[in-house]
Design a protein that fits this description.
alpha+beta; Peroxisomal Thiolase, Chain A, domain 1
Length: about 400
């Protein structure tokens, strides 16, 4: 069974909602990291690329009709290269990485691209068709995030808690205080600002043309911000008056894309690529939808238990910070300190942002670069997933 190696991994800067990247079509945004990989690796025979798998959550606007296939064609890859778009909600990009790695280990392919894209700024409104002739009712849904076209049976059986509500559920059930959440959020912001130089290694700029002026070049993450514990404490709760979840201790609504080349050792040598990390394995788990934020805990235990690796042996943990409440509850459940230096050492989604379909691949990209900066061996990438799931993937530096 062949090993799957990450040979190069890049991402765009992450843009704020309605921010610097909001004028870029989603399919065009998906092109950027693929085109960068092609430019950075001139010895690759791209006719030998066997698949492109992208994660994308929305798929209701410019990301419809299989955005992976659209992006690879727009990037200039040969028409013979196939592409598929996968959706495991927040872990879609992570799922893409896992699927390419599995195809390689199964011997089905030797080289592929995995990644993800999301433009939450450009997510459209959608309307269902009328259920009867001459209907006078009309519904409209914002596809940016959350439930739409709700099945009444799902609502009755599991509820349809919105994302902030699930975080509030976790905070209450697992006793995560507002003060601890705000302290975690502040650390994320501080680490992201301090880590800008480190993160620059993984970022490729996005050039935005202008009809009347010079093009705008976006080259840094837009979401991190200077703040203080006092400023965070002043923010009002999102869910309820006495709640603990705020805009300050939650991830952003963002735009971005990410891609990486994954190959066998033989294919890497043939195409002038340098293996940087081995994909050791991936697992997913389910939890109750109302506490979806706890999903990473069972996923990590399943993965590390199967591999026989203790969490204390992991040098870098990239835990997607959907909310500080769930990140803290997961860390405590796994026996990791709230302020552990190896967890999101350059900030997490609270500071960097969370472009849904790209975030999982972003975690793997950041972890790969961080392992080489620190000479660590193992990195764990894990995230919670809407409707009650968690996913975890382990890589090893080579």
């Amino acid at each position: 069974m062949a090993d799957a190696f990450i040979c190069d991994a890049v991402r765009t800067p992450i843009g704020r909602y309605a921010g610097a990247l909001s004028s870029v079509r989603t399919d065009d945004l998906a092109v950027v990291p693929i085109a960068a990989l092609m430019e950075r690796n001139p010895k690759v025979d791209w006719n030998a690329l066997e698949d492109v798998i992208y994660g994308c959550v929305n798929q209701a606007g410019e990301d419809n009709r299989n955005v992976a296939r659209m992006a690879l064609l727009l990037a200039g890859l040969p028409v013979e290269v196939p592409g598929a778009t996968v959706n495991r909600l927040c872990a879609s990009g992570l799922e893409a990485v896992g699927q390419v790695a599995r195809a390689i280990r199964c011997g089905e392919i030797e080289m592929g691209i995995a990644g993800g894209v999301e433009s939450m700024s450009r997510a459209p409104f959608v309307m269902p068709k009328a259920e009867s002739g001459f209907s006078r009712s009309a519904a409209i849904y914002d596809t940016t995030i959350g439930w739409r076209f709700v099945n009444p049976k799902m609502k009755t059986k599991y509820g349809i808690d919105q994302m902030p509500e699930t975080a509030e559920n976790v905070a209450e059930e697992f006793k995560v205080s507002r003060a601890d959440q705000d302290a975690f959020a502040l650390r994320s912001q501080q680490r992201a600002l301090a880590g800008r130089a480190a993160l620059a290694d993984e970022i490729v700029p996005v050039t935005i043309p202008s009809k009347k002026a010079e093009p705008t070049i976006v080259s840094v993450d837009e979401h991190p911000r200077e703040t203080s514990i006092e400023a965070l404490a002043k923010l009002k709760p999102i869910v309820k008056e006495n709640g603990t979840v705020t805009a300050g201790n939650a991830s952003g609504v963002n735009d971005g894309s990410c891609a990486m080349i994954i190959a066998t050792e033989r294919a890497a040598a043939r195409h002038g690529l340098t293996p940087r990390a081995r994909i050791v394995g991936m697992n997913a788990s389910g939890v109750a939808p109302r506490i979806m934020g706890m999903g990473p805990a069972p996923a990590v235990r399943k993965l590390l238990g199967r591999l026989g690796i203790a969490i204390g042996k992991v040098d870098v943990i990239e835990l997607n910070e959907a909310f500080a409440a769930q990140a803290l509850a997961v860390l405590r459940d796994l026996g990791v300190a709230d302020d552990a230096l190896h967890v999101n050492p350059n900030g997490g989604a609270i500071a960097l942002g969370h472009p849904l379909g790209a975030s999982g691949a972003r975690l793997v990209t950041t972890a790969t670069h961080q392992l080489h900066r620190t000479n660590g061996r193992y990195a764990l990438c894990t995230m919670c997933i809407g409707v009650g799931q968690g996913a975890a993937l382990l890589i090893e530096r080579v």
